[in-house]
Sequence to fold (194 residues):
Amino acid sequence: MSNIVDAQNTFSKLLDIEYQFVLGRKDKTVSLTIEFQKYHFFHIAGLQYLRDLPRLSIPAEEVYNQIESGQLPVSYIESSKNYNYIKGRVDYLPDLEYIFDSNDTIFKYNPALQAFSVIEADFLLRNEINRVPIFVFLSKGKNEKYFCKTFFPQDKKDYTERQTKWTVLFKKKIVKSKNTETILYKNPNFEIID
Fold:
């Protein structure tokens, strides 16, 4: 099982990656560019639930930097009485790149259809890792790019119920530092227009 440092180390690789998705449904298409920033890690890992740890009451990017530098050790994070609540996220967070690389199940997310949910997001990705459903929620940022708002393994609630499924028509992975692009998926009926 992973710890918060393992999760942060693998997340750091995503800082250099963007994904571009084209989704389709009923003759409509939507394009998404998904980016990752250091401050996103705080919510993805669920650190906001560790309210009993005063050293986490700093800006999210600073928490990330302190985990990376060792100033916030694993033992401190795991000392929270609420750590078990986020343990599933931390365990699966190293798989986040794999989830984005392999995902082909995307829903337009409407929180009003989930009475139990307080999550505000635009899209929901669903994957399975070792037969455990994993949910990834995407929201649009101020710069018009999408980001991973939250992420967790399914407990009892299925967030995909009553949500509208979209078809992945095209998916590309961009490694910014190498200026490389890899097409991860292209529907045979989808034409790329430059």
In short: The chain has six helices and eight strands.
